[in-house]
Amino acid sequence: MHLLSFLLALVCCLSCSHGRSELDMLRVAYSNVEKDTIDGEVSLESGEIPHWLNGTFIRHSCGVFGETESDLNSPIVNYVDHLFDCLEMGTSFKFEDGKVSFYNRYYDTNHVDIFNAYNQNINESKVFWKTILAEFDVEQNTNLRENITAGPKVAMIDHVAWWRIGDRVAAYSEGAKGFWMDIHNVEYNGRTDYKDTIMGYPMGTMFVSNPAHPHIDPDGTVWSACLTYVPVGPSGVYSSRYTIYTIVDETRSVVGEITLGEVDLSVCAGDGEPYPDLDHRQGYMHSFAMTENYIILPTSAYLYDPCVVAENYRPELPFFKASFKWYDEHDSILYVVRRSDGQLMASIPTTAFFVTHQLNSYEQDGSIYVDTLLYANADIYTYNMHLEQIFKDIPYETYVERFTIDMEDWTLRPFSPKAALTR
Question: Does this model's pTM top 0.85?
C-alpha cells in the first residue's frame, strides 16, 4: 500500500532528526492535520521547474489518527490504532507553467462533517467510522449511522490506490468500485458507475474483494481481478470464483474465471464460526502480476469467509477481522491465466505465503518470472501495522521473492521461501 511506503520513508527520516526522541516524532506524525492547504505556494531551494512539465502528482494521505500523543491505553476509543484506518486526505503537487502548488486537503465527506461537528475532538466523537483493522466504537457507529449514510455526500473516499481509467482518475481501495476524482483540485467527482451491468453476471452476484492495484496496457486497457460469488441453484447457494476482467471505455468485461466450487450459506450458523470448507474460500490478494501474455494471481492463505455476507454477521468487528482468517496449514496458490482467451493454464499450490506488492514480472526463455514482496503470514496487516507495534519499533521481515514458472510443464521451480516460511 501507499501508506506502507510512507511508513518506511518516515522511519528512515527519523535517523536524521535531532532534539526529539523517535517515539515523540512518531506520535506527532501519527496525529492530526488541523487544517487544509489549498493551492499553497511551493518555494524552490535550487534549480527550476521546466515549463514543459505540466500535471499533478497525487498521493493518498492521513488526516486524523486521534489522541496518539497520549496514553494508548485510554478506556475510550479515541485514536485509530491501525495504519490503514485514518480519516483520509488527498496530498498533491501541481505543476503548471514552471510553478508548483501544494494541496493537502480533506475531502467533502460525511465522515469529515461529523468529525468537524465534534470540533475535531476525537475524545467526543470517538472512532465512529467502520474500520478495516482498527478498533472502532460500535455504539457510536450505530448512533451516527444516519449521519454517516446521509446523501448526497459519500461517507468516505477510498484511499489505497489510484486507477487511470481512460482520461479519468479514480481513487480505489479493495472494492469493486472507486471514486472519480479531480486530482488537480483534490475533489470528489462521483462514483465509478460503469456502463456494464455487474459484468454480465446475474442479479445477486457479489464482488467482495478486489486487488487494490490494477495493471494498465499501453493502449489504456485496465486489467484487474475480483473475488466473486455468483448465485446458483437454491437461495443462499453461490459459485465461488476469481474473476479476471478488463475495463475499456468505462465498461468492465470478463476475460476469464477460476471456479473453486459452491458455497451454501445455510451452513453459516451466525455464531461467528467461519465457513468450514477451506477449498471453496478465496485467498486474499492486494496485487497481482501481469506479463505480455499471462495474468498471475498470487492467492494467499488469508481466506475470505463467505459467511460474512450473511446479515448481521459479526458487525462489531472491523471488516478484515470479520472477513479474513489466516490458515497456516492451507496452501497458497499461484494461478496462471492466459490473457488472450482467459484460459486457466496452471494452478500451482505452494507453502502458505502472503504477498503485498509486485516488483516485476516478465517472460523469458520459456519461463515466467514474478518478483514480489512476500511475508510468512498475514501479520504485516494484523499485527505489525498497529500503532502499538510501530511505536515500539517491533521489527518484521519482508522478503523479496522470485517465483519462476516453467511454461513447458507449468510447474513452479523450487524457490527459497526462507526459514520463516517453512512449516
Answer: yes
